[in-house]
Amino acid sequence: MKILLLLMTSGLLLSCSGKQKRDFRKILVEGQDDPRETTKSNPELHKYLERIGRDTGLGIEDLPINFSNLFERVEGEIGTVGRCTIYIKGNDLAKYTWAEIHIDRSYWNEELKDKPLRREQLVAHEYGHCHKRLLREHNDNHDDDGKPHSIMRSWVFGDWETETFYEPLRDYYINELMGD
User: Could you read off the pLDDT of 73-89 as tens digits, one per residue?
Assistant: First the structure.
């Protein structure tokens, strides 16, 4: 019997102290209709997704992005601020049927308010997990000066990293996202 497997790859962690990867799986019944919450995107988030899709040359296909309440502020714990959910048949991740991205609404509106490059980096990271031609895992490698090797680092870029690395090296990070 074929089954659909729900693979939720936790997105970004808030600080470098939390490098653990969260991986959630849920078995779905064969022949189930599209299990995504919606196939439409939030317009505010969609503009960031469209830019990344255009700049990578891969487009966005059928990949909705929406707000959710992912992040619970618990003192001393690290929360998820972005999540890619991929629905696949069997165990072959490359043959997934549907995907969706969720971004934590309060983190977006509070921590990332007036920070378009940090917002873009968060969306690009989840795009890297969710796009069927990428399916990227986390890469926490960095140079001695602190420069992250990848936008796929498991925690979000801070203001300093965004200004020092992401903004001037955006083309590098977009190319690296694609495996170049």
Answer: 656 566 789 998 888 76
